[in-house]
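Lab notebook page, bench 4
Experiment: in silico fold of construct C2
Operator: M.H.
Input chain length: 80 residues
Purpose: comparison with the prior construct
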Amino acid sequence: MLISLTSCQPVLDYLSACDHILYQCIVDFLITDVLSPIPMTLTQAIRSFAKNLEGWLTSSIHGCPTEAIKSRVRVFEPTA
C-alpha cells in the first residue's frame, strides 16, 4: 500500500518540504502587503482559517502513521 510509504523518513522529509512551500504560499497570499491596512473582516477570516487549518489537515490524513501526522501538523502549528 502507498500509505506505508509515509513511514519512510525520506518521504516524510519530502512531504515536509512540500508543506513548507504550501504554508509560505498561503501566508504570501493571505497577507500580501503588511504596510497597507487590512479590513477587520479579512483579519477575522484569516484567523478563522488559521484556527481550522490544523483540524482540517489532521482529519484529511486520518489513518496515516502517527509520525507522518506529527510531521505534517508541525509545519502548520505557527498559524494556530
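Observations: The mean pLDDT is 82. The two ends are 32 Å apart (CA to CA).
Next step: discuss at group meeting.
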